[in-house]
Amino acid sequence: MLDQPVADDIDLVTEYCQDPVFERFMTLPWPYRRGDAEFFVTEFVPHGWRSDLEYTWAVRIDGGFAGVIGYRVPTRSVGFWLGAPHRGRGTMPEALTAVADWAFQRGERELRWECVLGNRASLAAARKAGFRYTGQRPAEIPMRDGSRPEAWHGVLLRDDDRTEKDGWP
């Protein structure tokens, strides 16, 4: 299930974002503090929805908070993460498919995805959701220090079938 993150999710956002994987692969502040989660849930997410610039959903499993998935309007790109206890169950490809369907219903013709080189979990989710691998190049979204590390990139077109494509690293 996807819905907006709420105040009751702040403790789990804080907890999950302590994972060292986030330091290496994510653009989130590091170290990640409760204040960062409060800002994310109470200011960043609502502003994104109001401004029509970025839509962020909580990913819920059996009603509990498991992670987030977002869609950035200006870049037509998706980003996502799951807390460690929820990884490896096929949840994120399902959530990614739901967000893709939503974006295409809005009139988008393509969705873009990228992840820092080595983030195989993100790569697997994009591949399973039917994205096509488009290559390795510097990241479009800068890291917290402003750098643009090498990243894997993919695209999903509105008319693409959603089967896994060959050619992924």
Automatic annotation (TrEMBL):
InterPro entries: Acyl_CoA_acyltransferase, GNAT_dom, N-acetyltransferase. Keywords: Acyltransferase, Transferase. Residues 8-158 form the N-acetyltransferase domain. SUPFAM superfamilies: Acyl-CoA N-acyltransferases (Nat). PROSITE patterns: GNAT. Gene3D superfamilies: 3.40.630.30. This is GNAT family N-acetyltransferase. It holds the Pfam family Acetyltransf_3. Signal peptide: none annotated. Belongs to the acetyltransferase family. RimJ subfamily.
